[in-house]
Design brief:
The complex is a heterodimer of chains A (about 250) and B (about 70). Chain A has about 250 residues and is mostly helical. Chain A has one domain. Chain A has 10 helices and no strands. Chain A is elongated and about 70 Å long. Chain A starts with a helix and ends with a helix. With about 70 residues, chain B is mainly alpha-helical. In chain B, helix 2 runs parallel beside helix 4 and helix 3 runs antiparallel to helix 4. Chain B is elongated and about 50 Å long. The chains are: A mainly alpha (about 250), B mainly alpha (about 70). Chains A and B meet through helix 2 and helix 3 of A and helix 2 and helix 4 of B. Chain B: It is found in: Cell membrane. Chain B: This is Cardiolipin synthase N-terminal domain-containing protein.
Chain lengths: ~250, ~70
Amino acid sequence: MATLSTMLKKELLETWRTYRFLILAVVVLIFALMSPLIAKLTPDIMKMSFGKTLQLAIPKPTSIDSWTQFYKNMTQMGIFVVAILFGGTMSQELSRGTLVNLVTKGLPRWVVAVSKYISLVVQWSVALTASFLVTWGYTAYYFPDAKTPHIWQGFVPLLLFGLFFLAVILFGSTLASNSYGGLLFTILVVGALYLVNLFKAAQNYNPISLIGNNMALVQGSKTLGELGPGIAIAIGAGLVLLAGTVILLNRKKL
Amino acid sequence: MNTNWQLLADNLPIFIPLILLELILMVTALVHVLRHPHYRFGNRILWVLIVVFIQIIGPILYFVFGRGDDRRG
């Protein structure tokens, strides 16, 4: 256990020194700020571009628009940025041979995989929670209406999806010999999940449902209970992938 | 023009942190580009242009794909 916390410290220090955490945090905070801003400005932009030539009845923006923007940004650009930033987590160490010294001195390989995973999860949770709170604050300030009563219910699935998604990234990064291969693996997995999502029967069991129903959850037309199977499968698949990462790493030549 | 200023003033609580964050991202990347002469590909001028003129995406691209190894300066 002592080695795990030491490795974890090393991982967190590394992510700080390579600016990865800084970039992640700044980018998700920018998304968080842009969400209420775009929701608020959309009617003005429409007015400016169409002027008086087109008499459009543009509805006043509400908190729904703000949260829609947030979940759109996070589930598209947000997770893509995460995939790019962390796609090289394991493959970089493997290609540079920086693990050789540690492992030959007796560091168990599972510690490497688990510490990397924990560090990814910590970064994701901190950055996402911060951006969620920022959007929440601005949305409550600019759109004080009661149209989005279940704010936490939309956020929890996104956070949990991250646990699954990071396991996919780490597995892909261990499987591939370079960071592009890991990125490709991640994109393929997400693409496959979106394909599966076309079948209605599978929708509630699909981990991708965790990032597809956030607005329904926020507005209360869906409950977390309905997503229960999807959440269970996402967490289960995450653990399986983590175990798979350890097995892969055990067999890999460093 | 009047309405534009009004728009800006109304949304100042969002604009200020937004601009600040983009500046942090840009300046961090710019300083790194200027202090480290080795890149995985491209040259200094290319990366300075990318980092300064492509908002948000530019600095990400630099730190993920452009920065060279630190080990030998």
